[in-house]
Structures are given as structure tokens and as C-alpha cells.
Amino acid sequence: MNIFVGNISYKVSEDQLREKFAAFGEVSFVKVLKDRETGRARGFGFVEMPNDTEALNAIAGLNDYELSERKLVVNQARPKEEGSSRPQGDRPPRREYNNNRNFDRNNG
Questions:
Q1: What is the 8-class DSSP label of residue 33?
Q2: Assigned architecture for domain 2-76
Q3: Which of 57, 62, 81, 97 gets the highest tally of CB atoms within 10 A of its CB?
Q4: pTM for this one?
């Protein structure tokens, strides 16, 4: 099961996160996402646990758990939406302004 972990302190390493989840069972993957430009942690990550029962126990045991002075938000990860890196909701499409190149100064 893929698990989302949010509100991670910037001080917490992937190894520390793996250790906390390993107390509940086998952990096959841990990733704390980092900013591309600064390399600083973005405050969330993912943990993969192959056994669903162990994963559910980890979610129940670690949600609201305080780690490095921050309470973790832990829940089952939702699948990434195809074709979009961010959910768009009901937002209308962006308007194209084309840098106002269609503006005619002589007729206005």
C-alpha cells in the first residue's frame, strides 16, 4: 500500500521515516520529496508497505504522531491523476493574452 505522509519536519530524513514505519512491518520504499532548486525537503513524502494490514496499522499508529515537533498527517495515498501534476478542480481554462499584441494604438 502506498502511504502519504504530510507535515514532515524539514529535519526528518528518509531513514528516520523508514524507522518509524518499520515498527509496524516491512517497508519497501520511502521518499521525502525535495524542492528541485533548493534541495530542501518540501514537507511531505510517501512510504510503500507491501502488507496492507501492516500499512493500515502504521496509518492508525502514526497519524497525528509528533515527530521533530510536528504532528504527522498519515493516510492512504490517492493515485496520481493522469495528464496533470496538480488537481485543477472546476477552474475554467486560462485565457491567452498574447502579450496584448492585438492592441492597435492607432484605432483606440
A1: E
A2: 2-Layer Sandwich (3.30)
A3: 62
A4: 0.72
